[in-house]
Write a structure and sequence with these properties.
- This protein is of the alpha/beta class.
- 31% of the residues lie in helices and 16% in strands.
- The protein has a single domain, classed as Rossmann fold (3-Layer(aba) Sandwich).
- It is built from ten helices and eight strands.
- An eight-stranded mixed beta sheet has the order 2-1-3-4-6-5-8-7, sandwiched between helices.
- The longest helix is centred in the first third of the chain and has 15 residues.
- The relative contact order is 0.13.
- Bound molecules: iron/sulfur cluster and magnesium ion.
- Iron/sulfur cluster binds next to loops.
Length: 288
Amino acid sequence: MSVNIADYNSVNTPTWCPGCGNFAIHTALKKALSELNITPSETFISFDIGCNGNGADKINTYGFKGLHGRAIPLAVGAHLANRNFTIFANIGDGGCFHEGLDHLIHAIRSNYNITILIHNNQNFALTTGQATLTTPKGKPMYGLPFGRPERDLNTSQFILNLHPTFYAKAYSQDPLQLSDIIKASIEHNGCSVIEIMQICPTYNREFTPEWASQNTKKVNTVEGYDSSSIEKAIEMVKTDSPTYTGILYKDSSIKTFYDSLENRKDTKTELVDEVKRQDIKKLLRFFQ
Ligand code: SF4
Ligand code: MG
């Protein structure tokens, strides 16, 4: 059976602002999944609170919209329950780098076989544009006319210093490149982190196509670039002039969390099947 991109269309109409980068990100995701012939019924996406989270019912897959900052543990739970699914955690820069930062660290460290899509639009957009740690220091934002006073944090460098097994950077308005990166992340056996610079024409007018054409460069156009060198990848994200997009780092030599579990070594079944064989009536009564 061949999967069509339209199989991922939802009956619900998106409510994002015109020109929002979430449209292109969803298109790239649907394109990647359909081209790999993965069906909607084999796909699970967890969604955070935020504008990207408002896309939870706009794509036809299994999904769960959780509390702010908790998209990653939800994705991890779904993955550990049934590894036959292709799993994504959809999270914004607010949820990822504020409320849920601990989850990002542990997902990378544990190397769960999931893909984390960070929609980085440099603000808490759903709540009308408050500053996040990715908003440039001093940029006036809602409730902060003089901008946030704290120092900036280079999120790419921070993530790469955690030694992820897959790290890529993308621009929302280049859905073809993003789709190729997502396909590679699905094929990667481990935790893939894709940081997407997402245009938000309502509250962040930074990531315009004009900005991208002058300030981004595809890493695969850099002669001799070696995506197996963590030192090289960290070097590439030291400054944002230019910002490199594409797969900056990949390491296939590290075992996933599940593959490291000695007690699951020879198990052929999934936890979701095993739990069906347990009588949990007594346990449920305990919570009634
Ligand atoms: Fe998209 Fe920004 Fe509008 Fe949210 S506020 S829907 S991120 S354009
Ligand atoms: Mg945001």
